[in-house]
Amino acid sequence: MQKRLKINMSVKGQLLVISGPSGAGKGTVCKALLQQNDIWISVSATTRSPRVGEVEGINYFFVNRDEFLKRIDKDDFLEYAEVYGNFYGTPKSKVFEVLEQGRDVILEIDIQGALKIKSAYPEGIFIFILPPSMEELKSRITNRGSETPESLKTRLEAAYDEISFASKYDYAVVNDEVEDAVKKIESIITAEKCRVFKIKDELLGRY
Ligand code: 5GP
């Protein structure tokens, strides 16, 4: 009789890197994912000013340019990039600590940062969030009310460029309905946890 196979799925956490143009709804999708799953999201440092309602340490760590440059020198960031004239960076210390604990980690970062991480850590899961259409993207950014006409124009122009990078990612998820997008990402996470190359050692050690 065949021995019953017991697979311990408690392997190390997975690193999810999520990008997409401004207005694609990455923030909303990530928030819903976190509410429904045991995932930790990294809080970035930025030199951009806080938007109304943004909270220090929850949305970002808001720092000035000098402080950011000092932290680059101290090698504090896993990656950093200049986006729309401001610096954004992923603080290094916590990310791998959480992954080691077996918890999944989300980095919601721009394409430049995502591609840097991809070349250093290809085991990550790279997900690109797309808006249902460019009209919808424009209306989402406009309705947010946080952009000046100038920054709205910058973000819209950048969106076309950014979307052309979707093919560098492992998965593309269209965010039409947030709940559907969340379900798709949960399915991706589940499928990735079954990738043989990720669980090979665990499996071989068991039988
Ligand atoms: P926002 O100003 O709309 O919050 O963010 C602008 C862009 O910066 C978004 O594409 C966001 O994903 C990206 N971003 C936020 N944090 C980081 C980070 O730590 N590193 C990089 N490379 N991009 C980031």
User: What is the C-alpha radius of gyration, as a whole number of Å?
Assistant: 18 Å
Name the CATH class of the domain at 15-42 and 103-206. Alpha Beta
β-strand number:
9
Oligomeric category:
single chain
What is the N-to-C order of secondary-structure elements (H for helix, E for strand)? EHEEEHEEHEHEHHEHH
The CATH topology of the domain at 15-42 and 103-206 corresponds to Rossmann fold
* CATH architecture level-2 label of the domain at 15-42 and 103-206: 3-Layer(aba) Sandwich
How far apart, in Å, are the first and last alpha carbons? 15 Å
Runs in which pLDDT lies below 50 for 5 or more consecutive residues are 1-11
The helix-and-strand class reads alpha/beta
Main beta-sheet annotation: 5 strands, parallel
How many DSSP helices? 8
User: Could you tell me the mean pLDDT?
Assistant: 91
The coarse overall form would be globular
CATH superfamily of the domain at 15-42 and 103-206: P-loop containing nucleotide triphosphate hydrolases
Give the helix level as a range of percent: 40-55%
As a percent range, the share of strand residues is: 15-25%
Largest beta sheet: what is the strand line-up? 2-7-1-8-9
Features:
207 residues; alpha/beta; Rossmann fold; five-stranded parallel sheet; four-stranded mixed sheet; 8 helices; 43% helix; globular; binds guanosine-5'-monophosphate; EC 2.7.4.8; transferase; P-loop_NTPase; ATP-binding; Guanylate kinase
